Amino acid sequence: MEEPMGRRFGIGYALAPKKQASFVQVSLINLAKERGIDLIKIDLEKPLIDQGPFDCILHKIYSPSWKQQLSDYAVKNPNVPIIDSPNAIERLHNRISMLEVVTDINFECEKVSFGIPKQIVVYDAKAVKELNLEGEGLKLPVIAKPLVADGSAKSHKMSLVFNKDGLSKLKPPVVLQEFVNHGGVIFKVYVVGDYVKCVKRKSLPDVNEEKLGSSEGSLSFSQVSNLNSVERADDKYYSMMDLEDEKTELPPISFLVNIASGLRGAMGLRLFNFDLIRDVRIGNRYLVIDINYFPGYAKMPCYERVLTDFFWDVLNNNDDNKMDLNLQSSNMGTCEMEVRKLVSNSECEEDDGATNLPVSPIKREEKESSIQV
């Protein structure tokens, strides 16, 4: 897979400072150079149209002006791949529309099923106080997540809510997601083009009825797989939950590849990861609980090689038709679809810090896909 003699490629990247520091490491830069690929920082203080030339653009910047710059650049340079489309990325900024795409996937699988947790969105404080969880098909505990998922620290502030007192303290707009006991393990599945890698991470411990009755209103955390020292107090519970734990079996790789391929085609994205949990009540049932665009790939083993191979394929047009492979939503297998309309009392109030994000007050229509063959 050596590059042609004398031919070099330039990939322009536009990333926030923190993202750039974690992703564009010297090891990645050097490996890419060996393959004839130069990673070039885009100057965000200058018009994109005046920079380059680039053979590809890699970005994770969210703003209307940047979106317009990408559009203008694409018109002038129609053959330059942009990874990825801002319109496709925006779907992941809303935690309801984010998971709806999972229900569009249909493929044949053996002995394994998947879906999404039951969830509703509440747009105002009055609706929270008057909320009848059981009437909406939910029961305590629930995970409370900000509706907006823009990658900011605020969007990662979540809580495990144990009772009505905890519910009353939530600040809408908020998504209430069914909490499913999953053995304290979450599977993070990284997708880079057609490459799929699954790793195990520690997660929230299971909640039993006894703990539910004695717990405070809620437990705050940043990410399910990134608990702080206080929330990880039960070290004995987690002693066997590290990456070397051989007791926790990974999901079947063919199953993960099918989900990843389905998501890739349905979303039109090539760089993302999704979080998967295994329902302890039904050992062969998995739930997709979150999808993130352009995640922290530096945490993934051998990320430099994986990303460099991906860049090479994109630049040499080896990636052109892969978006359509195995992604046809055909009549393979069976799929039971449950549709529940969950409507809050009012429209969405603006959430400070996220007013520029295109989060539409979509109708709360949840479709839980259960594929079983």
UniProtKB/TrEMBL annotation:
Residues 349-373 are annotated as: Disordered. Keywords: ATP-binding, Kinase, Magnesium, Metal-binding, Nucleotide-binding, Transferase. This is Inositol-tetrakisphosphate 1-kinase. Monomer. The keyword tRNA processing does not apply. 1D-myo-inositol 1,3,4-trisphosphate binds at K19, K60, H156, K188, N292, G296. Binds 2 magnesium ions per subunit.
